[in-house]
User: Fold this.
Amino acid sequence: MSAPTASGRPLDLGADTIVWDAHAGVFPDPQIDLNLLNDWRDNGVDYLSINVGFDVMDWQQTLRTLAAYRRWVLAHNDRFALAGTVEEILDAKREGKLAVAFDIEGMNALNGDINMVGLYHALGVRQMLFAYNLNNEAAGGCHDTDIGLTDFGRDIVREMNRAGMIVDCSHASYRTTMDIMAESAMPVVFSHSNPIMICDHQRNIRDDQIKACAKTGGVIGINGMGIFLGDNDTSNETLLQHICYVSELVGADHVGLGFDFSPGVDVDVGAILRSRPDYWPAGQRYDTPGIKHAGPSQLPDLLDGLNGRGFSGNEVRGILGENFRRVASVAWAATLR
Ligand SMILES: [Zn+2]
Assistant:
């Protein structure tokens, strides 16, 4: 199916190609109007992982958001579908629907209880991050003292492998990510992180992290947030620079997209970031006025850009989604139910 996009141009990668956005940047809130998901659907995205919580909030709030989002998606099944497997994503695509699963940014949502991993999985969470910028009882965050992965965190890696959840290193500290990648029996991703060699920011990642991720069979999703791409620069030219850097370092099979995008025009991102200087510390450009985001509306032009950079058809399809699909088809095939 050729999906008509909001920009008026089709994003036609073939019926069997899944266009995959590994992470939305929507503020997790049960009250939010999820009609904003149309922004992905109308721009030809087939699968989106939308966050239902992060360490800034308590686990009860994460469950409330997850409950509200599940109900909303099920009530709008003419356009959207909950997906827990790659087959369910392909079914949704055939029916012209955007497939949705959930992710959680940080382990505070577990409330210290390993049993919560299986519960979240049963409710549609298919990807979890270990920390959100600051340390927690599982892991170190990228804006905190680098404590590495804790014993509890090690148990959680193994539990996620067994339960069928993608292990996600974005927002964690350097040592933590290296520990996670050594521990995991399944491919590991950075769902929304950029190479630090292109843009110097504590949220971005070093070459050896990128190499270790590729060695697990994983994927680095390029983040669309302007301050992680460059000087609040969301141009396709800059996105391509990040994509090409990772591709040249470890191969195009290990690059994807995690736009971290939110179309919520009413949300003042700057006000949220200023409200918690512990999670979004000074000196990390979070106080940049009018932080911009690259998003799915840029996909048709990005496709042209990738073709123009000499990537093969298979490599382009991989970057736009098939690489993350490869990870999911392995990581979601769990041994524990
Ligand atoms: Zn994030």
